[in-house]
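My current task is to audit a protein record that another person submitted. Thanks in advance; the entry in question is below:
***
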Amino acid sequence: MEALNKHGIGTFDVVVVNLYPFYDKVTSTEGISFEDGIENIDIGGPAMIRAAAKNHKDVLIVVDSQDYPALLEFLKGNHNDQQFRIKLAWKAFQHVASYDSAVSEWLWKQTVGDKFPPSLTVPISLKSLLRYGENPHQKAAFFIDKSLSEVNAGGIATAIQHHGKEMSYNNYLDADAAWNCVSEFKNPTCVIVKHTNPCGVASRDDILEAYRLAVKADPVSAFGGIVAFNTEVDEALAKEIREFRSPTDGETRMFYEIVVAPSYTKKGLEVLCGKSKTLRILEAKMNEKGKLSLRQVGGGWLAQDSDDLVPEDIQFKVVSEKNPPESELRDAEFAWLCVKHVKSNAIVIAKNNCMLGMGSGQPNRLESLRIALRKAGDEVKGAALASDAFFPFAWKDAVEEACESGIGVITEPGGSIRDNDAIDCCNKYGVSLLFTNVRHFRH
């Protein structure tokens, strides 16, 4: 202060700083050179923010435009509320920390390339408080990856909600599962999810038919579920969703928690909004691939690559005497895409690009198979079966029961010490067996 007084320099009461838009630049669709990325790293801005935040007792620091109205009210009232000042200072330090984290992550990718750095900082910010968590006695909130939200990247976190009740904790989980699954398919596809498991999946050139078949796969589970499409929802599809009756009794209108799609026509959105005041209608962009998947355990975090493999990445190797016809190969690929998204132990049975039945979450693979077979019923004849992992036993176990049911082709990773038993069993029953050498556990 002596130096300021000596040179006649005044003090600042308010400091407002907008940092260089680093997120926007380095994640732009046009791309950016390393040199331009470096140029977009703000140096003076963070320094001013830190200095002002440290001196929050005498300086108001603002880094978020949403705080402008509160700042103006504070100044008009001539308040000296230290809690308000501390809150702004906290927000300022948090803002700089997130900014520096994004720069650090970008530099790591540019110069080192290792997916797992020695330390990991994820810039997340609060999007909304939720009514409760997975259960009513649990408090909950939804945080968003700032590095993605600021460039409006894909996924459920940045989805636009056009209609319906506010999203719940479980809604976010289920919508994310449905969107992840439907995004896998290139052809027009409908996916219906219940408790994060796909209970109905169908691909057709006609999305109306795909929707009907997806519901038919398990209408009991579909009721109260989440419906996802990878194509635009137009008026005709919206009317079908609005008026469709449950196949179980032909009378009850199907009820859904959420509909999610990449876009809606104006009329399609109007029709869907008329179905129910509570129906949540989400518009989402396709997920960004290659991101780390993080999961918390007691005292730490697990990080891994996302399971982004597609059929083009896989060699479906025929190991049986029988070669499957082209139609069964297509069904095998379809079932394989579906089983990726089913909780382990997972079995999916499919035919004509439509899921007929699935078994999920069972401690042993045989029980998952039996559930899937029961769901598929008589349609199992000539269908494709996919398993998320190898079969530890074949004779008098899952492989033989599948063969006896009339399954046409089985797809599994292989890798068991009893692979030869599975091959011999399929040969005995004239069933095609494909190995992928890729496992899809989902816990």
